[in-house]
């Protein structure tokens, strides 16, 4: 993905309700034709969806990032699931002993993989 495509995708992702294509090209400081090509690439790569939209009587498109499924292995360390999933404790990330233990296990796994 090019730098401008990456920037466009991040802008779209940062707006959960979506962003109008007519606004995107202005935010990126590019012309509408170049924006259309970027949107097409992101749509073809299945990273965003493009929805017909009328804004002040003018046809445009609402762009929304598609949600990706999380890879389960990213939530595991030492066979243990990330403790924050389903946690009901009211703690801060910096002070959570369960999370610190999980992260320690993750570091051990990465170290073991690097040395083998």
UniProtKB/TrEMBL annotation:
Q: One short Pfam family name for this protein? A: B-block_TFIIIC
Q: Which Gene3D superfamilies match?
A: Winged helix-like DNA-binding domain superfamily/Winged helix DNA-binding domain
Annotated ranges, domain B-block binding subunit of TFIIIC: 15-67
Record protein name field: Winged helix-turn-helix transcriptional regulator
Source organism per UniProt: Methanomicrobium antiquum
């Amino acid at each position: 993905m090019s730098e401008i495509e990456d920037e466009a995708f991040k802008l779209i992702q940062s707006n959960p309700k979506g962003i109008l294509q007519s606004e995107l090209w202005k935010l990126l400081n590019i012309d509408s034709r170049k924006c259309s090509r970027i949107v097409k690439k992101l749509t073809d790569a299945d990273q965003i969806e493009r929805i017909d939209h009328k804004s002040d009587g003018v046809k445009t498109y609402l762009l929304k990032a598609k949600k990706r499924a999380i890879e389960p292995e990213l939530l595991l360390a030492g066979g243990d699931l990330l403790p924050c999933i389903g946690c009901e404790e009211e703690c801060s990330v910096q002070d959570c002993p369960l999370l610190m233990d999980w992260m320690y296990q993750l570091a051990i796994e990465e170290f073991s993989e690097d040395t083998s």
